[in-house]
Amino acid sequence: MDLASPEEKSKHRKKQLVRSPSSYFMDVKCPGCFSVTTVFSHAETVVLRVGCCAVLCQATGGRASLQKNVPSDEAALKVPCVKMNRKPSQ
After folding, report:
1. SS3 at position 88
2. What family is reported (predicted)?
3. Which single residue of 2, 12, 49, 87 could bond 54 by disulfide (Cβ 3.0 to 4.6 Å)?
4. 65 CB contacts (<8 Å, ≥6 apart)?
5. CB 49 within 8 A of CB 33
6. Alpha carbon of 19 to those of 15, 69, 71, 83: distances in Å?
7. Distance between terminal CA atoms of the chain?
8. What are the structural domains of the chain?
9. What pLDDT, in 10s, does the model give residues 32-75?
10. Burial state string for 38-56 with b = 16 or more CB within 10 A and e = fewer than 16
11. Which whole-number Å values give the CA distances from 55 to 11, 63, 64, 65, 67, in the listed order?
12. How far is CA 86 from CA 59, 63, 83, in A?
């Protein structure tokens, strides 16, 4: 590791040459019904599983914290955030 020129990820977020978001989407498996749900890493609300109403993660002010006994696949699915203005389907 060269201290004179650190890697871009280790620099401060505003001092990186190309800024990129640190948020991502991850697959979370429901502990009750074992179905996989895609959850945003910086969710601002409580994320519930639609079928069984199990709480998957809660907002903490920054990153969403996963509930205990909820397995996730963060490493396999780190998709960068792309903000989309879509109305929820009814």
Report:
1. coil
2. Belongs to the eukaryotic ribosomal protein eS27 family.
3. 49
4. 57, 58
5. yes
6. 8, 34, 30, 16
7. 52
8. 24-77 (2.20.25.100)
9. 788 888 888 888 888 888 878 888 888 888 888 887 766 665 54
10. ebbbebeeebebeeeebeb
11. 35, 16, 12, 11, 7
12. 22, 22, 9
Report which residue type is found at 50: V
Extract the tokens encoding 38: 């895609």
Tokens 């920054």 sit at which residue? 62
- Tokens of residue 6, six digits: 């650190």
Residue indicated by tokens 């696949």: 73
